[in-house]
Design a protein that fits this description.
Length: 85
């Protein structure tokens, strides 16, 4: 399980000055970073999320943890195991 980050951007010009574009592009290509543009608030917020996804009997399941940093990877996997039963 890998940690995925999300960034919401208002001022695109300032954002492009503040980031390492090669590093951000690499993270986006790996699916570890999502960048959203056009927020109405004048702020940049970085959020940390975890997810566990699995497929069973033709169905897709996903448990998502957003900005609650007290759960470990093992906690997330154990929750999935409880659902799977």
């Amino acid at each position: 399980m890998e940690l995925k980050s999300y960034i919401l951007v208002v001022n695109t010009n300032q954002f492009q000055k503040d980031i390492n574009q090669d590093e951000e592009k690499d993270l986006q290509d790996k699916g570890l970073l999502e960048i959203g543009y056009g927020s109405e608030k004048d702020e940049i917020k970085v959020s940390q999320n975890q997810s566990v996804m699995w497929y069973e009997d033709g169905l897709s399941y996903c448990i998502i943890n957003m900005d609650y940093t007290e759960l470990s990877k093992d906690d997330m996997i154990n929750m999935a195991k409880e659902v799977i039963g």
